[in-house]
Write the structure tokens for this entry.
Amino acid sequence: MERFIDIAPEVQVALDTGGPVVALESTIIAHGMPFPTNIETALSVQETIRLQGAVPATIGILDGRIKVGMTEEEIYRLAKAEHVVKVSRRDFPFVVANKLDGATTVAGTMIAADMAGIRIFVTGGIGGVHRNVAETFDISADLEELKRTNVVVVCAGVKSVLDIGATLEYLETAGVPVITFGSDRFPAFYSRDSGFPAECRIDDVGDIASLITVKYDMGLRGGIVIACPIPEAFEIPADDINVTIQRALDAAVSANITGKRVTPFLLEQIKQLTDGKSLEANIQLVQNNGTIGGQIAAKLCERVV
Ligand code: PSU
Ligand code: MN
């Protein structure tokens, strides 16, 4: 794998000594948030993870090299550049072979984390089944990756730009455990309640670490979703955000947006329509996920030693 990947020395030492490491994605930096909020959030979530005693490893692609544990300068490059390719599983060969810059999605980050030996990954929200799936066949490659790659994804649930019910059904079919942290309701990114119940609720990070250990000790392949509701103080009520989301979805249809451009387009529309309120919620939920993910990574390592 050295042929394709550069692992930061600090990350490599932690991995070699069985220390906690948390992966972070870069699509949220290059295509999910505007500059300079993107770089500020990327750096501060790294600090949040350090506060829990874990080493952060932000993942992205520079000049075709897969970077696991990007430096501040490297993250800045992805945050600022205009032509960064959004990289999911299918995009790796093109971006690596052509020595391009790429920002990894949840699926792309899971692949690189797994290659490096990182088990825990913190992000904002995962992709899923889109609402108009019957016409578009639009299902995020994140779900396929969760089916096959052994990485735990700590997120704030699924945004209601997606069909949350269909996404949960897909994850059930794919055999992916979906754990809700500390709530009886599955969260919807900006809102604490998606309208769907939490099938598996766990209130303690140590118990989450136990579940992760059991799954992989049993040899069950695939990911795990840990859904953490946004802290109450930063929540946007579902009724408010859903009006905005419907407008964003209508705009995407009018503009005939398809393929990998759909999700970034919707995120940008929502940001504009909420005057940045959605961005503040996004920052806060990522920080919250960073705290919880860092704690889970630390607990997992306690078990190893
Ligand atoms: N959902 C969000 N914010 C994001 C993304 C999803 O709330 O930034 C990004 C993630 O990187 C995710 C990707 O993996 O979008 C999914 O894109 P697609 O729907 O094209 O698979
Ligand atoms: Mn898609």
